[in-house]
C-alpha cells in the first residue's frame, strides 16, 4: 500500500516537473514556440494570439488541468520542427528504446550477479582482485565515450559491425555492449559486497562450523539472502540505463526515444522534449513498479 | 597514507596529478581553449601538442581548462551534497518522528525518479550556467547520501557512551556533534568522494549532449564537437577524442579508488571473510 502511494507521488512529481519547468524558462513559455530571433519578429498581436490560443494568460491550476487532460488523452501537442503530433513520434520511437534498455537490463543483471558472486568467492585469489579492479575501471568509464571507442574499433577500423541505425540484431550489439559494460561495474561491486556481508553473517558461519560442504554452503545458505539487497540496485540500474539510453542512442544514431529527446533538445523543440521526457520518466517508474512487484517472489518475508 | 593501501594511494596519486593540471588550467589566460591560435583540424605539432579542433582552438588548453571546470564542479557539488545529506540524514536520525518519516518517504520517492533524465530535463529548461548546474545536481543527488548518513548516525546514537550522555539531558544535536562526530566524521569521506564522482560524470554527459556552458571549454564539450564533426572517422580521434575521455575516466577512477579504500578501512569486516 505504501509503495502504491509512493508511486502515485512519483507520477505526480514527474507530471508537475514537466508542467512547471517550461513555465520557469527564462523568457517565459513563449520560448516554447521558437528561437528568440523568430519570436522577436512576431507582432504584439500575434504574441497575444498565441498566448490566448495556448492559454498562458490563464491561472496556473486551470492550465495544469488542461495539461493533464492532454496527457491522459495522449494529446501531447505538435512537434515544432516537423509539425508531427508528439504522441505519434514517441509511439514510433518507444519500442526501439524498450528493446535496447530491456535487453541491456537483463544482460547486466545476470552478468553482474554472476560475476559479483564469483568476485566475492574468489576474493583472495588473483582472479577476484582482477575482477574487482576491472569493475572499478568499468564503473568510471563515461558511456558516451566508450560508445565512441567501440565505433572506432569495430565500425571504422575492423568494419565488422554496423555503427548506426537499428533493425537487425547486429545493430543492437554495440549499443547494448556499451550500456552493459558501463552499467555492470556498479552492479558487480554491490553484489560482491552483499555476498561478502552474508558470508560473514552468523547463520552462514554456523553452517560452516557444522561442517556443511563449501559448495552447498554457498548455494543453499549464502546466495539467496545475498541477492535480496541487490534488488534495490536493479531499481537504480533501470534509471541509469534509461538515462544512458539518451546518450547511447545519440552516439549510435539509434532511432529510439533517447535520440528523439536529444534531437528535440538540439532543436529546442520544447513540446517534443517535454513529451519524450515524460514518457521516459514514466517508463522508468513502470519498470521500477514491475521490479518491485516481483520482489515478494524472491523474499518470502515480504509476502505478508 | 599507508592506511589506505596500494589502491587508495594510486587513487590519491592520480587525483594529485589531475588537480595539478586543473591548477595549471586555472592559471592560463581566459582565452585559453577558446581563442583560435592554429589552423582548423591541425594535427599535433609545435605549440599545439594535441592539435587543434575544427575552429583552430588548442585541444590541450581545452583539456587543462576542462580539468579545472570538472574538478571544481565535482568538489563543489560534493561539498554541498555531503553537508546537506548530513543535516537531512541527521534530522531523520534524531529528529521528531514525523520529520523522520517525512524525510524517509521523500527519499524513497526521489530514488524512483531517474536522476540523469531529470538532470538533462532541468538543464535543458533552466539554463546551463555553472551555478544552475551545481544547484540541479545537488537537488537530485542528496537522497542516497542522506540515507547512508542517517544509518551511520543511528548506529552512533545507539552507542553506550551516547546513551549515558543522553541521560544527562543535553540537546540531542549537541550530543551527536560532541560525542558522535568521531564516529560519523569518517563516514563523510566516502559520501563526499562518491558525490564528486557522479557529479563529474553527469556533468560531462550533459556537456556531451550539447547542454554545457558553450563559453567555457570542458571535457564533455570537446567530446560533443568530436561527435558533431564525426571525428572518429578520421585519424584525428587519437588526439581529439582520446584525451578528454581518458581524463574523465581517470578522474572518476581516482575518486573511486580512494572511496573504496576508505570504505574498506572503515569496515574491516570486509577483509575478514573465509575464502
TrEMBL record, chain A:
InterPro entries assigned to the protein according to its UniProt record, in alphabetical order: MetI-like, MetI-like_sf
Protein's membrane topology: Multi-pass membrane protein
Highest taxon of the lineage: Bacteria
A GO cellular component annotation in the UniProt record: plasma membrane
Compartment(s): Cell membrane; Membrane
Entry keyword Transmembrane helix: yes
Domain ABC transmembrane type-1: 94-291
PROSITE patterns reported in the protein's UniProt record: ABC_TM1
Keywords: Membrane, Transmembrane, Transmembrane helix, Transport
GO biological process: transmembrane transport
Main location: membrane
UniProt cross-references to Pfam families, sorted A to Z: BPD_transp_1
Transmembrane domains' residue ranges: 7-25, 93-118, 130-156, 168-189, 226-255, 275-298
Family under the similarity heading: Belongs to the binding-protein-dependent transport system permease family.
Protein name: Peptide/nickel transport system permease protein
Organism listed in the record: Nonomuraea endophytica
UniProtKB/TrEMBL annotation, chain B:
PANTHER family named among the record's database cross-references: OPPC IN A BINDING PROTEIN-DEPENDENT TRANSPORT SYSTEM (PTHR43839)
Name of the protein this chain belongs to: Peptide/nickel transport system permease protein
Topology in the lipid bilayer: Multi-pass membrane protein
Gene3D superfamilies according to UniProt: MetI-like
Residue ranges occupied by any ABC transmembrane type-1 domain in the UniProt entry: 71-259
Major subcellular site: membrane
Swiss-Prot/TrEMBL keywords: Membrane, Transmembrane, Transmembrane helix, Transport
SUPFAM superfamilies xrefs: MetI-like
Superkingdom, taxonomy of origin: Bacteria
Compartment(s) where it occurs, according to its Swiss-Prot or TrEMBL record: Cell membrane; Membrane
Organism of this sequence: Nonomuraea endophytica
Any single biological process term in GO: transmembrane transport
Keyword Zinc-finger found: no
Cellular component terms (Gene Ontology): plasma membrane
Transmembrane regions: 12-29, 73-95, 107-126, 132-149, 182-201, 237-262
Family (UniProt): Belongs to the binding-protein-dependent transport system permease family.
